[in-house]
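Weekly puzzle thread! Below is a chain. First person to post its structure in token form gets bragging rights.
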Amino acid sequence: MRTKPIQLIQFLVASILFMGTLLCAQDVSAQGKTISGNVTDITDGMPLPGVNVSIEGTSTGTITDFDGKFSLQVGPNDKKLIFSFIGYVQKIEAIGTKTTINISLDEDVEQLEEVVVVGYGVQKKSVVTGAIASVKSEEITETPVGNAAQSLQGRTPGVLVTNVSGQPGAGVDIRIRGTGSNGNNTPLFVVDGMQMDDINFLNPNDIESMEVLKDAASSAIYGSRGANGVVMITTKKGKSGKSTVTYDGYYGVQNAWRESPLLNAQQYMTLHNQGAVNAGGRPIYSDEQIANPANDTNWQNEIFQSAPIQSHSISSSGGTESSNYLASFGYFGQDGIIAPEKSQFERYTFRLNTSHKVSESVKVGVNATFVREERSGIEENQQFGGSIQNALLHDPLTPVYDYTRDNEYDAYPVKPAYNPNHVNPITGNQGSYYGISDRQLREIVNPVAKIHNTYEDNITNKFIGNAFVEVKPVRLKGLTVKTDFGVDVGSWANRGYSPEVYYNSVNQNAASSVNQSMGEYSTWQWENTAMYEFKINDDHKFNVLGGMTMRQSTGTDLWGSRNQLQLPGWDYGYVGNGSDDNSQKSNGGFYDHRLMSFFGRVGYDYKEKYLLSATMRYDGSSNFGPNNQFGFFPSIQAGWVLSNEDFLKYNETVNFLKVRGSWGRVGNENIPPFGYLSAFGSTPSYPLGPNGVPQPGYGLTRMANPDLRWEAAAEFNVGIDVGFFNDMLQANVDIYSRERQDLLGNKPVPDYTGQEDPITNLGTVRNQGIELALTYQNNEGEFKYSVTGNVAYNDNKVTEVNNSDGFIFGDGLHNTVGNMAMATGHSLPFFYGFKTDGILQTEADAQKYNEMYGMNAKPGDIRYMDTNGDGVIDENDRTDIGSPVHSWSYGLTLRAEYKGFDFSMFWQGQAGGQMMNASTRQDLISEQNYNTRYLDSWTPDNGSNTMPRFTHDDTNNNYLWMNDMVHIEDASYLRLKNVQIGYTLPKVISQKAGMQRLRVYVSGNNLLTFTDYSGLDPEMGHGGAMGSGFDMGSYPQARSYLVGLNITF
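Winning reply:
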């Protein structure tokens, strides 16, 4: 066997560490003999370097070399050799007359019994008493994703994961057991002990496991940072005796999984003729124009393109009984399916994990990651200006390119958007400039031109690392003392450029402009823990944990902009190149946040039957004033493993049964630093002095609130875990009720105060639900298969609002306030609009309706409901018309293996939530295009009761008012997230080629979606509790087809 450099290094390290043992070896009688042999892994036959080979009853021994070989001199009285290695069952072999001994070691099943990572420790899964779900590395990499958090989607009940956007590099929105706050709902991430706010920087191939602490009792050990749940992430480490080099990579192509059904040119003209006539006018388009449209532009076809996606990771790992290491490098690159040249993301990651046992009692280690991200993007989910919204609303009659001219458009004050790829118009291909539409309101512009003139990029550099020293005193068995110091430091820079350009007579940039921003941040964290584990009579097991954490985060940022670049173009798009001094602006900021904590846990276990534990954490935060600076967060858990009782111990059907219950209290302090203090800042300019020249002001922008309190949540959880037929069938059920009090958020104040809304404690919200997870696995000879499914239901309700009118309003649409709201007795949040009761079908219906409510409706108009019963249809009739919060979530995974072939299929979905589809807006009347469902609009010959009459005047506000008939759509969906088929080369063949394993696969993501939502994608991130559920041209998820390769050397 050829010696590989990594394995050679491993062998040298193991040899040096074992030198002390060799020096202490006893002399062997001249009448002894030499025993030699090989030690291999019983599973794959691979040699095991670094295995301890010792003579029983002596300190004499050796270790296996790089090829698993050993040679040891024994005396005439030596009887047995002991072969030991971490992670393997110790084996004892009689010497007898042998001179050659070949041994195969088997993995230690007991030692490798599945364990679960919990706060500041690990537990055997069989004795866990909290609601904790695990996702292992095999599941994480089973569905190729760019963001590690996406691996949780549909894998565990009660964890709602939604992609914020389909744009490359976009994050995800994670809600554990519902929406608990009108502010931040993101869980805490703990990566190898370091507390983080997100994990977008992680390479998914570096992750060993992800544990989700769902109930308050499990996350209470993290106190004020555990209110939204905790996701524990353990990255991969080197394994003793396993010296490997691994490559994981894939390359694929993406495209749009569907287009929104929009009107073509003929349908567009026909519908708008109908709208004009219904408004009392004359048809806009002639029969000839409708029959032979000059243009029929499909704007979605123009912006959607195929784009590449790829990922490559290489790692090297290994170890001995005293040391291990893992080094990895990863690259992920993705171009967007909309404007790939303007929407891109690249991530480079380097990770080093290593630990070393410097003595029998002392262990040191380092986990370090460096990440560089480069991204560019386009505007999305905007009422006006977003390229995707423009593509959905732009009329099909305007051409993408202007074929009629090849000059400078002297009639326009600013040169129109130029097409750099133009061809002479005489050829009939494209044109020098992009097409221009000057219809009515002119808020919608050519999306292709808009994308071409979008320039934005962002670069982020990040380093995360922590070093630890762990001491396990030899003379005090069971005690572990650990100190861990970590840092998270980084910097970012963003640049945007807009050229001088004309889109239409309203939308134009009279001067080029540029903006730049940059910032840096740093976080340090120091944790010290002591854990003592001991037994009494082998039946009573105790563990006691105590610790403290100190943490500080600081950061600065700077922003500036300027117009009229002296040298136009992206390459010169820097603030220093601007020449218009009157347009220059700048701003900057600084933050400082500090947290100090003390925590503890006590656990008791009687024969692994009766389980009890309690935790506490005491936090102090700089975000709160002296009146409420500290918070106390306790919890208690209990469990009963019935399957270890004599009456069930030998049951052939139920092999495992555990019931458990818990209560805990957690907190949230996620508000701006020093949020309890008043703030000063710049205010609008006012005309002052004899000439009335506007002068900027500086004054109070936020009122102080010294009584601001911690946001706190208390939760009860009851669960049952059961295994049937030797765990062939496993089930987990949890029922919970969580009440979150003193929600932190901004309380609206009148505009005349001139101040921002102060941070206050706004109210209380309750989440109750049930979660079910099932797994069935079986083998039929060489055919292995499994089915894993989960489903969760959550009921979300606000029980108290700390406001005089009982309402807190969130984001709105069409520049209005209050389309999203929070109120007692409703979901958090809910759409605040008008309820409807069908459509007025006849003149008699309309006349009666008008007489009752003083309206001016006509047949075909919406019948709005007088919800408050005052006989008037007005703003006071707005009420709850739906919620973007899904109450149901589910996932299903099918797996099968036969010989070298493997297959997996993963389905995921959500149900119960609604979406406000802004592409149904009609405030632009005759300017915009529409969804094809408008073809079903009411007419005298089509008595539709789902779509009102189409009219350009809309005196009844059928479309402008936010109502549950036109705007609110069911956003439930079921999606085939991934299908993968792979083949692993037989070991005999791969080993002959110098490889331990070689697997190739093909994979498809987002292949099928079943939904009634008419927009581009029903899966859209929440974007904050009070701003969720608005689809104003969101970037859809891509469908992708991949080819991948896994190689282990």
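Puzzle host: Confirmed. Bonus trivia for everyone else. The mean pLDDT is 87.
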